[in-house]
Each structure stands twice: as structure tokens, then as C-alpha cells.
Amino acid sequence: MYQVYKITNLLNNMVYIGSSVEVERRWRQHKQASINENDHHYNYPLMEAFRDFGINNFKFEIVETCNGY
Description:
Number of strands: 3
Strand order of the largest sheet: 2-1-3
Distance between the termini: 8 Å
Shape: globular
Helix content: 25-40%
Structural class: alpha+beta
Number of helices: 2
């Protein structure tokens, strides 16, 4: 089973859509990557947005739960 999630920038309404079998862990990974310069995702647009706008200006929500690939 996996879940589709959406991260929304509450200041400009830009949206990131992702999926994972462990959504809460993935959300933590996104946030950690935004502050860890050694993470290979550090310069990805989502991580840069977290730093530019502040993580508190993002909403995380699960939009779908799926039972297979």
C-alpha cells in the first residue's frame, strides 16, 4: 500500500505531489533534506522553497491511499 501526498506552499499556492509507502517518514526526509547541506536533495526546488518561505508556510496532506502499484 502506498499513499499520494501533496505539499502546498500557503503563500503562493505552488504544489508538490509525491507518493510513498511511508508518508510520515518521507515528510520528515523532505524537511531534513532542506536543512542538511550534505543531502543530495538540498538544492532541489522544494527544499529551496522550504528555506525561502519557511517550513511553517507549507501544508502537508495525504490525498489518496492506494492498494498496489
